Amino acid sequence: MSDKGFYTYKGFLDAARSFDGFGTTGDDAIRKREIAAFLAQTSYETRASEAIGADLLTNPDLGATDATISFKTAIWFWMTPQGNKPSSHDVIIGKWTPSAEGIEAGRV
């Protein structure tokens, strides 16, 4: 399948509107930084079936055939803390503060 025309601006906006605060928190510089950083990391693997309201277990091709679902999986990963790391969203908008252990380990 060719990706030509799959990743549309409309698909991105439709998906972004599903996550309160994504690309809309802070001043222009923070909002631009969040979206730029998000787009830079979209190649990471995500798991988002229940969180995004799509049955990807039964129909995994939705992530490759539905632009909104594809963007939703990536935005879910961006907005959701993973294990012992904060969400990228929280880091970018200044909501996350490193712990003393994190500072000691250089995670600031």
From TrEMBL:
One of its GO terms (molecular function) is endochitinase activity. The keyword Hydrolase applies. It catalyses: Random endo-hydrolysis of N-acetyl-beta-D-glucosaminide (1->4)-beta-linkages in chitin and chitodextrins. One of its GO terms (biological process) is chitin catabolic process. Keywords: Carbohydrate metabolism, Chitin degradation, Chitin-binding, Glycosidase, Hydrolase, Polysaccharide degradation, Signal. It comes from the Eukaryota. Residues 69-79 form the Glycoside hydrolase family 19 catalytic domain. Its EC number is 3.2.1.14. InterPro entries: Glyco_hydro_19_cat (IPR000726), Lysozyme-like_dom_sf (IPR023346). This is chitinase. It comes from Morella rubra.
